[in-house]
Each structure stands twice: as C-alpha cells, then as structure tokens.
Amino acid sequence: MEKWIRARYQPNLPLNGSQRVTASPEHIALSRRAAQEGAVLLKNDGNLLPLAPDTRVALFGKGSFDYVKGGGGSGDVTVAYIKNLYDGLKEEGVSLYEPLSDFYRDYVEKRYEAGDVPGLMAEPALPQDLVDSARENADVAVIVLSRFSGEGWDREPVFYQEPDYPWPDELNMPRKAKDIFPRGDYYLTGEEQRVVNQVRAAFDKVAVVLNVGGVVDVSWFWEDDRISSALLAYQGGMEGGAAIAALLTGKANPCGKLPDTFARDLSDYPSTEHFHDSPHYVDYTEDIYVGYRYFETLPGAAEKVCYPFGFGLSYTSFSLEVLKAGEENGTVQVQVRVRNTGDRAGKEVIQLYFCPPRGLLQKPVRNLAAFRKTGLLAPGESETVELTFAVSDMASFDDLGKIAPSAWVLEKGRYALYVGNSVRDAVELDYAWEQAETEVLVRLSASMAPSHLSKRLLGDGSYEDLPAAPAADTVENLFQPLTTAQAEGVAPATPGRGRYMLAQPYAPGVQPLSAVAEGRLSLDEFMAQLSDGDLIHLLGGQPNVGVSNTFGLGNLPEYGVPNLTTADGPAGLRIQPEVGVCTTAWPCATLLAASWDPELPAQVGAAAAAAEVKENNISVWLAPAVNIHRSPLCGRNFEYWSEDPLLTGKLAGAMVRGIQSQNIAATVKHFACNNKETNRKYSDSRLSQRALREIYLKAFEIIVREEQPWAIMSSYNVINGQRASESRELLTTILREEWDYAGLVMSDWWTRGEHYKELLAGNDLKMANGYPERVEEAIKLGAISRADLEICARRVLGLILKID
Q1: 164: left (phi over 0), alpha (psi -120 to 50) or beta
Q2: pLDDT-based confidence at residue 75 (cuts at 50, 70, 90)
Q3: At what angle do helices 698-707 and 645-659 cross, to 10 degrees?
C-alpha cells in the first residue's frame, strides 16, 4: 500500500479483511478484562465477597445506574453503550430488589434528560419505606458511589478564568460540582452520608463499590465494622459495570493494587494545605515526599493512612519465599517464589523497595525499586519471579551541592531491601546493598532552579531554606503578547493548493517527501528545497481532515507532505459524537496503573492506537498522560497513573510500546508538572531541582530512555518562572542532551507561549495553530534563524516519515 494512503482518503477501510477492529468484540472484551485487572479489593471482613450463589442483593445509590466510564475533556470517548453495575449484575443472574432499582433508574434517567452528565448529579433522598422493604427482600446491600471530574477544573473547584476567555461555559461544570459537593468530591455529601446511615442501620451485610477516578475519602468504611467489604472499581470504561459484577460474584478474582496512598483525611496529604493559595502559582514545599514517600517517612504520618500504597486484597491467599538476593554487574537481583495457598485461582503482585541511609541528603525510607505480577495461579500452584534494578537507581539528586552540585550521588551506607505485596507488608531481606564510599554518578547542569520557593520539607519533619535562583521573566517577548482572545481556540488557516496537472503534481525539479521515504533523497536535501515560509508552515498545526477534531501536522502538498491528523486520548480514540463513529472506551489510566501489569497497557495501547487510531486514518494519538498524582485535588488525575514515578514510567512506557507497534505515534504528556488544572495556562509550579528530577521528570525519563516515544507534549504551565513550552533547559538541556531524546516535541493546544520562543527552546510544533507572521518577524529582527527552523522542521518531517 502506498505510504500515507490512509491519511489521504475517507471513508476508511477495515485494517484487516472486512471486519472493522474499532469497537470490535475483541477490543471490548479486552476493555472489560482490563477493568477487572485493576479493581482493588480494599476490605472484605467475614469474606462477604464474593457473593454466595442465590444471594439477593439490594443496590443502593444513584451510582448503580449513574455509571462513570471515565473523566471529561480530552479523556472522554464516544461509545455505543455503557454498562452500569445493575446491567452487569443482571447479566450474571444476580437476584436484585427491583423496586429499589426502579427508584434509582427513574431518577438517573430524569437527571440525564435534564442535562446532567454521569457522576455529576446529586444523590436523591432515599425513602425509608423503600429501605425497609429492601431489608425484607434482600440479603446483602451494595452501596454504589460515583464521581466525575474533567479537564480544566480541580476537584475542589475554584472559579478562575482569564480575561476575554472565549469559552465562559467551561465554568458551568465546576459550578455544578461545587453545588453538589460543597466540600469537594473527595468527601461524601450530606445526602450520601444519610443513605449510608440508612443502609448500615438496616443491613448486617453491606458492601461498597467506588466508581471513582482517583483518591477519595475511605475512612468512613475503613473504620466501620458495619460495612464488611469495599471494592475500588475506579472508572472502568464502557464495560466497567460488567467487570464489577464479575468481581462481586467471584467470576473474576480481584488482583489490583493501589497506585496511590489512601489517607484518613484530605488534610493529611502535605499538598492540600496550600493547593489553592493562589491561582497563579503552586509551592511544592513537600518536595520529594509525595504519596507513600511522605506517609512512610515523616514522623507521625504513618498513622494517618487507611490503605497504603501497593495494597490490595484477593479472594485467595499467597505465600512469598525469597530464594536468592544479590548483586551482579551493578544490578540487584531478587528471586521470589510465590505460592497460592488459598482455594481460588488468583494473581499476586510482588513489590521490592529499598531504604537508603539518611546521609547528608535526607531520603524517603521506602522507594519502589521493582515489581512483578504473577500469572493466574491455581490453588497450590507456585511461580518464581525475578525482580531486578540497577544499583544506580538508588541514587539521589544533590541540587544544593552538599556532596556535589547538580549531581546524582550514591551516599555511603546500607541500602536495605524489602519484599512484599504492599509498602507496609514488605519484609526486610537478609541481603542489603552496602555502598562503601559516597559516589558521584553523574554531574549535570543546574537547570530550572526555583527563584520563589523559600523552603522545602525534609524527612525528619523540619524544613530547609532554599537559595533563590535569578528570577526568570515569564513574559519576556520581542512583541506585544497575544491577548487571550487572539491565542485561545484559534484554528489554523486552510489554504487551497494552486492549480496543477495531475500528471505533474509537483513543480519542475521538486523531489517529494516520498523520495526520502524510499531512500532516493536525504532529508537535508529535501529540506533544502523549502523556503523559510515553508519551514515555518511545518512548525504549526494544520486543519482537520477526516474524523479528526484536534488538527494535524505537515500539509505541504506541493512537496508531497501529507496532513497527518491527531486524536485525543488516553481512555480511547476520541471522535466527536456527530461524526457517527463509536470507539472502545478503555479504563482510566489510574485503573490500568492499579493492575501493576505492564503487559496490560501494552495490549491496550496496541488495540487503542495501533489498531483503532490507524483504522480511522489518524496518525498521532495524544496519549499517554503521565503526570504524578501529587494531590488528590487535581481534576485530571484520572488521566494520570500514580503517585510513584517508577510505576508510572514502566506501565505508561508499556502503553507507548503498544501504541507504536504498528507505526502510530504516541504522545507522552504533559511535560511537565501539570498537577493543577485551575488557571493551568499561567500557574507557576514552584519546586526544587531535586523534586523535579526525582519525582516529576522521572516517569518521562524512564519512558524516553526505554521506549523512545515519537512525540512528547509540553505542558501549559509555568515551571519556576519559565513556561514549559518555552523552556530550553527542559526541552533541550534535559530532554534531548541528557536523555538523548530524538523525537518531536509539540505544545499543548493553544498554549500562551510565544511561537518563536518555543522553537528556540526545542518545542518543534505549535498546536493547534502556529503564528507564522510572528515567526517571520522574529527572523527579520534576528531573534531566530533558518538553521533554528530547520532543526525543528527536521523533527516534524522525521515523525511523518515514521508513520506508514
């Protein structure tokens, strides 16, 4: 088939034979299996779950019908149907108390008709007589709670918008959320609490299902003996209700583990207190003590935890036996035999942590070093797994020069190792790595140092003063900056091609890009044909074609450069409803992270991108998103994976591998520190170089070094005074020079960065629209050269050449 042929024509053809793979039965089955693999059984006192055969169930809560398949914004997906928990339990043949379900079904249908979206409606008042009749006709009560959040607002909404912002309706949803959840949706509402009180007063056997995108309050059932069981189902895609039903009935065995720490209260997270201090900045004063690194290290913090990082129950039990532990050629190796000691088939996750010496650089007492999920083990069956990591992975970044400035160092001392099935249950090994002398592994530049972060937290609970770097001028510009109205939501021009002969599609002497693809011309020779204006054209977004609504790149038909289009992710191929194409909605990224199984996101990536994206003639999928769960309040956490960078990097990296398995581009985003949605295009993330390197860049570094993604998306926000898309220290010094990244960097859509400054920084492509007239003026003023344009254009064309 001719290269780029699918990108040129609509309608599309099935990838294989006559059967379309988009939303195929095979993909939907994989989505359902993924939803099962990531659900976490938090509590199961008295083994209430799985439900015994012939159990009569009363489903409480609007969430039994108001199922949330995933978050909003770019993470939404157009689907043919959604299965809620009621649907799933009916498929499994469970006896349900129908009058109660009728009450919730009618309420939810009316709220949908009134314009409510799934997960964003108030819990209805529950008539007591309905509770009483349910008690007489059911054995077990299941309370279902659902939550929804979306792009552009946080889970404790603050209403802030730029002047002249052209989308005022974007505040409607956070206003609605504030009305329903006055304390934020982390907590139960008053009406939800009343339902819980009614149910636990009436039933001896109560289970809870949480259909949520991230961390919520769990203390109300964690410490309540009247609630026996709790299943954290996350947002499981279009088949999520069926997946939950299979787990509740024992058709499947829960095997997910928490990718985040669940504390007693929102105030227990160190990021909460100052999260909303200002819409213009966020101080990351907790530094490297994020998630379990905080709760397992800081004095008194451990007692604030309900469910620790890595925790998850099963319907069976497992024993772990360490067979071997040692080091060879700079790699630590630990072999563990895992045996199923229960009476049901199941999977277990083995987790390896290290505890470094405190040293001059105080450090977290637990750090995830490696993990492995077993296959499905029958009762009595065992599997031996090997966990490995490099000794250098235990290094810390010295940003203040206590040992060596801007260097990764291994301090001398004992590095203890712990193995188990959660950060709390991990047991210390007899073997430990002994670092005889402090070693400086690599010296780097002092990049992206903070100028407005005065202090940071240390592991003993005290704070350390930070020196102030010279302040960056965020708005420095040759030109008058664009107003919000000029920069937001602007579509690229749609120029028509001049007349030409079909027999002679190119001007005399022109060699098309296909000549480079076929090896008849070098890329430099091809680019030599292009004018400065042609190069600038390549460095901005291009019009939508086909089913795309997120614009494209390339589009120089006079030189045979196709217009390759993009599509949103990461919960599936996002095509607007009016197009009439339904795709597969996959579980949210946090659920995939809870699987702790890299093979699963690799399969999802291959199906979602290498198949469905390609079949619909789209070439670049804007996924995965890998920002760290710094705070439960971030409205976009459902798109992100975990509080831990290693877990994030390994699983999201596997998704990248799957996406690119058939020459479709993955786009790893949002680079970097996009941990707050309020005023996201201006908010300054203020953090130390150490926190940046060890926590917020680490997942990106793992993915770049191991998978070489074809594209990375720079984030909207400012980092220590520099816009991410304009930061040469971030996009060139760190990303390209230190990590050897060879791919393309694109901006997030309609960033507030100046186009010529982004190009100089190493942001190759301005999306969704470039500003060629401003770049041309910058050339005239000597601020940017043709050589600068060629560097970026080479990477744009290089990406196009990879697409088949």
Answers
A1: left
A2: confident
A3: 40
Q: What are phi and psi of 514, to 5 degrees?
A: -60, -25
What would the mean pLDDT of 241-262 be, rounded to a whole number?
Answer: 98
Nearest Cα residue to 725 out of 747, 703, 699? 747
Enzyme catalytic residues: 748
Task: Give the contacts of 72 (CB within 8 A, at least 6 positions apart).
Answer: 117, 148, 149, 150, 151, 173
Quick one: what percent of the chain has pLDDT higher than 90?
Answer: 93
The pLDDT mean for the chain works out to: 96
Single out the residue of 635, 643, 644, 640 nearest to residue 655, CA to CA: 640
Q: Enter the pTM of the model.
A: 0.97
Helix and strand tally (H, E) in the chain? 24, 30
Same fold, 40-253 and 309-452: no
596: region left, alpha or beta (phi > 0 left; psi from -120 to 50 alpha): left
Classify strands 281-283 and 684-686 as parallel, antiparallel or unpaired.
parallel
| pLDDT tens-digit series, residues 287-336 | 999 999 999 999 999 999 999 999 999 999 999 999 999 999 999 999 99
Residue 355 has what pLDDT? 98
DSSP string, 204-233: SSEEEEEE-SS----HHHHT-TT--EEEE-
CATH of domain 309-452: 2.60.40.10
pLDDT at position 254 is: 98
Q: What angle do CA 523, 494, 530 make, to 5 degrees?
A: 25
**Angstrom distances, CA of residue 621 to CA of 350, 353, 671:** 32, 34, 16
> What's the pLDDT score for residue 590?
98
- What's the CA gap between 656 and 570, in Å, rounded? 11
Asked whether residue 597 carries a pLDDT value surpassing 60, the answer given is: yes
- Report the pLDDT value the prediction gives residue 783, as an integer from 0 to 100: 98
Task: Tell me the per-residue pLDDT of 183-198, one tens digit each, with 9 for 90 and over.
Answer: 999 999 999 999 999 9
CATH number of 40-253: 3.40.50.1700
* Cα distances (Å, whole numbers) of residue 226 to 233, 366, 395, 402, 430: 21, 33, 46, 53, 41
Phi-psi region of 408 (alpha: psi -120 to 50; beta: other; left: phi over 0): beta
pLDDT at position 163 is 84
Query: Is residue 251 helix, strand or coil?
Result: coil
Instruction: Judge whether residue 276 has pLDDT over 70.
Output: yes
CA pair distance 574, 576, nearest whole angstrom: 7
Domain boundaries, the chain: 40-253, 309-452, 518-802
At residue 1 the predicted structure's pLDDT band, cuts being 50, 70 and 90, is low
Question: What's the number of CA atoms in the CB half-sphere (13 Å) around residue 402?
Answer: 16
Stretch (H or E) spanning 420 = strand 413-420
pLDDT recorded at residue 116: 94
Which are the contacts of 531, defined by CB distance < 8 A and separation ≥ 6? none
Assign 51 to helix, strand or coil.
coil
Which has the minimum average pLDDT: 69-73, 293-297, 688-692? 69-73
Q: Contact 604/573 with Cβ under 8 angstroms?
A: no
Q: What is the CATH number of domain 518-802?
A: 3.20.20.300
* Per-residue tokens: 533: 């204006």
**Hey, what's the torsion of the CAs at 295, 301, 306, 308, to 10 degrees?**
20
**pLDDT at position 373 over 80:** yes
Distance separating alpha carbons of residues 118 and 291, to the nearest angstrom = 29
Task: Return d(Cα 85, Cα 210) in angstroms, integer.
Answer: 11
CA dist., res. 589 & res. 605, Å (int): 11
Q: What's the CA gap between 311 and 293, in Å, rounded?
A: 15
Q: What is the CB neighbour count within 10 angstroms for residue 185?
A: 28
Taking each helix axis as running N to C, give the angle between helix 25-38 and helix 240-248, from 0 to 180 degrees, rounded to the nearest 10.
50
Whether omega for the bond prior to residue 58 falls within 30 degrees of 0, making it cis, is: no
Q: How crowded is the C-beta side of 185, counted as CA atoms within 13 Å?
A: 31
